[in-house]
Design goal:
Distance between the termini: 34 Å
Number of helices: 5
CATH superfamily of the largest domain: endopeptidase domain like (from Nostoc punctiforme)
CATH topology of the largest domain: endopeptidase fold (from Nostoc punctiforme)
Radius of gyration: 18 Å
CATH class of the largest domain: Alpha Beta
Number of strands: 21
CATH architecture of the largest domain: Alpha-Beta Complex
Shape: globular
Strand order of the largest sheet: 16-17-18-19-20-21
Largest sheet: 6 strands, antiparallel, barrel
Length: about 250
């Protein structure tokens, strides 16, 4: 088994080994993964954080030893806190990295970082504060940064920045935590999931105070939440049908 670390800021992970294939997620700086299959130009990987799989360009990651992989995956939280920061290499070349990048591999990559660091699990009350970092970020299928993000990437990154693990897709996240019977039982920071006509979970957002929700739909936005689902305050219609509310923390 081979192992790798993302040594660039934001790298697309594809459904198939092709630059024109759909982006299913992104690798952020410092992300660790197993290399399941390696071809001439592409590798199929499985992330250590959420077990998500996809294809990465071989030029956009660095191979590492299994011992280093195991050591780093057991390390405590150490994430970049600023919206955008830089790491520098031995030649003082700068590499931009987004908020939520994993900094545990700095020494391995021979990089330096002088920005602000998150190094502890936060209280549940901080989840909503963190979500505002992404407010008005454009929707991007497979995205995980304030420069483009999808609904489950948004919830995953907000939780990650507070020290909690969520899976990558909304359907996977909906299997985590404890189901609540009513909106009234929920607290700010809980997750609300929404389904389509076939009953498949297709959307997720973070519950706020006073029956509001913050979620990625066109952009990261705030809307009303009621027993039917999300009520879009701009279009004056319900856009998503509520399926279940989950308490993760």
């Amino acid at each position: 088994m081979q192992y790798g670390i993302c040594n660039l800021g934001i790298v697309p992970i594809r459904l198939e080994p092709s630059d024109t294939s759909e982006m299913v997620t992104q690798a952020l700086y410092g992300d660790l993964f197993k290399v399941l299959e390696q071809r001439k130009k592409w590798s199929r990987i499985r992330f250590a954080f959420d077990k998500y799989e996809g294809w990465i360009d071989n030029k956009q990651y660095q191979e590492i030893e299994e011992s280093k992989f195991l050591e780093l995956t057991k390390s405590d939280i150490k994430l970049s806190k600023d919206l955008i920061e830089f790491v520098s290499d031995a030649s003082n070349n700068l590499y931009p990295i987004p908020v939520g990048s994993d900094l545990n591999g700095l020494e391995l990559l021979n990089h330096k970082f002088d920005g602000h660091i998150i190094s502890a699990k936060s209280a549940k009350s901080d989840i909503i504060k963190t979500s505002f970092l992404y407010l008005n970020a454009p929707y991007l299928w497979g995205g995980k940064t304030p420069f483009g993000i999808d609904c489950s990437g948004f919830t995953q990154m907000v939780y990650k920045l507070n020290g909690y693990k969520l899976f990558r897709d909304a359907s996977e996240q909906s299997a985590q935590g404890e189901a609540l019977s009513f909106i009234e039982e929920s607290e700010p920071g809980d997750l609300a999931f929404f389904d389509n006509a076939e009953g498949n979970i297709i959307h997720v957002g973070i519950i706020m105070e006073d029956n509001h929700i913050i979620h990625a739909h066109g952009k990261v936005r705030i809307d009303r939440l009621d027993h039917s689902g999300i009520y879009n305050i701009d279009k004056n219609i319900h856009t998503h049908k509520l399926r279940v509310i989950k308490k993760i923390v």
